[in-house]
UniProtKB/TrEMBL annotation:
The lineage of its organism: Bacteria, Bacillati, Bacillota, Clostridia, Eubacteriales. GO terms for molecular function: electron transfer activity; FMN binding; metal ion binding; oxidoreductase activity, acting on NAD(P)H. This is Flavoprotein. It comes from the Bacteria. It holds the Pfam family Flavodoxin_1. PANTHER family: ANAEROBIC NITRIC OXIDE REDUCTASE FLAVORUBREDOXIN. It comes from Youngiibacter fragilis 232.1. In the N-terminal section; belongs to the zinc metallo-hydrolase group 3 family. Residues 252-403 form the Flavodoxin-like domain. PROSITE patterns: FLAVODOXIN, FLAVODOXIN_LIKE.
Length: 408
C-alpha cells in the first residue's frame, strides 16, 4: 500500500494501486487499476470512498497508522460496489465517531454488506451541502452511473469533484496525477475505453449528470480508478458529452396483433416513447396491412418490436403467419423485443420471442439487461396485465432500453 500523498493543501490520496491483471466485469484489466480514496482534513475530517474489499484491512491499518481514525467525522460512500466501499466495515469499526454519508438507496446495501447499524448512516439529498469548517461539500446524485445509488461529491472551495467510477481509467500508475505524464503520453484511449465499458451501457444518464456538474467550475476530477485529472478537466468532461451524444438515425417497426385493444395501446405507447427519444417508430397492425408490405418494412428496419395478445396460450390473427417468414429473411443482428398485454397467462409474448430468436435477431431479454447493465427494471418480453397504462413505468423502461440498444 502506498503512503498517503497530498494532492492539494490538506487533501490526501490514500488509495491502493493494483498492478495485477485484475478480473473485472468479465474482463481482465491488462494495465491493472487503482482504487483511489481521499482524506480531506478540515475542522471536520472526511474520508471519501475506500478501496477494494481484498485490500480492506491493509487500507485501514495503513490509514490508521497515519491518521487518528477517531478524528474522522464523515465517511462519504459515492458508490456501493465493493471495489470502493470494500474497507468500509473495517474503517467504520475503528472510526467510531464517523457518520457514513451516502444516498438513501445505498444505506440498506451497505448495512447488509458490512454489517453496520442504521445509526452509523445519514442519507444525503441531491444538491445538499455540508460545511466542513473552511470548506463545503456538495452532494449530487448521479443515478445509474453506473448503478442506481451512485452520487458524486464536490468540494466547492477547491473545485474538486470526487466522481468515483465516473471519468475513471483502468491503469495502475503510481504517478497518480494526469499532469505528471509527459506531453507525448495520452490517456485518451484508456479514458474512452473505460467509458465504453462502464458508462456507455447507461449513456442516457450521462447528459443529465453532465448538466448537473456544468458551471460548477471543476479544476480537478478526483476519480476512484486510475488518474486524478488535474488538468484539461473541461476536455475530459467534453469527451463524455461527445460520446453520449453520438447517435445514429434509426428506424423501427412496432408490429402487433391485438384482440381487445390493450396490446394495440401498448404498441402505441411504446411508439410514443421511442419517438420522444428521436427514434422513428412505425406502428403496424398485423391484421390490417398486407403481409408483403409488412415484411418489406421489417427488412428495412434497424429494430423491431413485436407484440401479441394471448388467446388460449397462443397468438391469434395474422401475426404468426408473418413471424413464420422471419427465419427465411436476412434479419441477423437486428435488435428485437417481444411484448403483449394479457389477462390470465400471457404466453404469447414468449411465443413471439421464440420466433425472433429463431430468426437470428439480437433479442432483448430481462436476463441480458441485468447482465449488461445491472438494471432490474427492464422486462423483455414486456408483458403487462390488461391496461398498459397501469404498467407505465415498465413500458417506459422497456422503450428506453430498446432505444439505447437500437441506436448505438
Ligand atoms: Fe469501480 Fe462500480 O466500481
Amino acid at each position: 500500500m502506498m503512503e498517503m500523498r497530498e494532492i492539494r493543501d490538506g487533501i490526501y490520496w490514500t488509495g491502493k494501486v493494483d498492478d495485477r491483471r485484475v478480473p473485472f466485469h468479465r474482463l481482465i484489466l491488462e494495465k491493472g487499476t487503482s482504487y483511489n480514496s481521499y482524506l480531506i482534513m478540515d475542522e471536520k475530517n472526511v474520508l471519501i470512498d475506500t478501496v477494494d474489499f481484498m485490500f480492506g484491512k491493509e487500507f485501514t491499518d495503513r490509514l490508521g497508522s497515519e491518521f487518528d481514525l477517531l478524528k474522522l467525522d464523515y465517511i462519504v460512500i459515492n458508490h456501493t460496489e465493493p471495489d470502493h466501499s470494500g474497507a468500509l466495515g473495517s474503517v467504520a469499526r475503528k472510526a467510531k465517531n464517523a457518520t457514513i454519508l451516502c444516498t438513501e438507496i445505498a444505506i440498506p446495501e451497505l448495512m447488509e454488506m458490512y454489517k453496520l447499524g442504521i445509526e452509523r448512516f445519514r442519507a444525503v439529498d441531491d444538491n445538499e451541502t455540508l460545511s466542513l469548517g473552511k470548506r463545503t461539500l456538495r452532494f449530487l446524485h448521479t443515478p445509474y452511473l453506473h448503478t442506481e445509488e451512485t452520487m458524486v461529491t464536490y468540494l466547492e472551495e477547491e473545485g474538486i469533484l470526487f466522481t468515483c467510477d465516473i471519468f475513471s481509467t483502468h491503469v495502475a500508475d503510481t504517478r497518480l496525477l494526469a499532469s505528471e505524464l509527459s506531453d507525448d503520453e495520452s490517456i485518451d484511449a484508456d479514458f474512452i475505453g473505460y467509458y465504453s465499458l462502464i458508462m456507455d451501457p447507461h449513456r442516457r444518464y450521462v447528459n443529465p449528470m453532465l448538466d448537473k456538474i456544468e458551471g460548477l467550475g471543476v479544476s480537478m476530477i478526483a476519480t476512484s480508478h486510475g488518474y486524478v485529472l488535474d488538468k484539461d478537466t473541461d476536455r475530459y468532461i467534453g469527451l463524455y458529452r461527445e460520446s453520449a451524444e453520438k447517435v445514429k438515425d434509426v428506424r423501427t417497426v412496432i408490429l402487433f396483433n391485438s384482440m381487445g385493444g390493450n396490446t394495440k395501446r401498448l404498441a402505441r405507447l411504446l411508439g410514443e416513447e421511442l419517438e420522444k427519444t428521436g427514434i422513428r417508430a412505425e406502428v403496424i397492425d398485423a391484421n390490417v396491412r398486407p403481409k408483403e408490405e409488412i415484411l418489406a418494412k421489417v427488412a428495412d428496419a434497424d429494430g423491431i418490436l413485436v407484440g401479441a395478445s394471448t388467446k388460449y396460450a397462443d397468438i391469434s390473427g395474422n401475426l404468426e403467419g408473418i413471424l413464420a417468414e422471419f427465419k427465411e429473411m436476412d434479419l441477423q443482428g437486428k435488435v428485437a423485443g417481444a411484448f403483449g398485454s394479457y389477462g390470465w397467462s400471457g404466453e404469447a409474448a414468449h411465443v413471439v420471442q421464440d420466433y425472433l430468436k429463431e430468426a437470428g435477431m439480437k433479442v432483448l431479454t430481462t436476463e441480458e439487461a441485468v447482465r449488461t447493465t445491472g438494471m432490474d427494471d427492464v422486462s423483455f418480453p414486456l408483458r403487462v396485465r390488461f391496461k398498459p397504462e397501469d404498467s407505465i413505468f415498465k413500458v417506459k423502461a422497456a422503450a428506453a432500453y430498446f432505444a439505447d440498444k437500437v441506436r448505438y
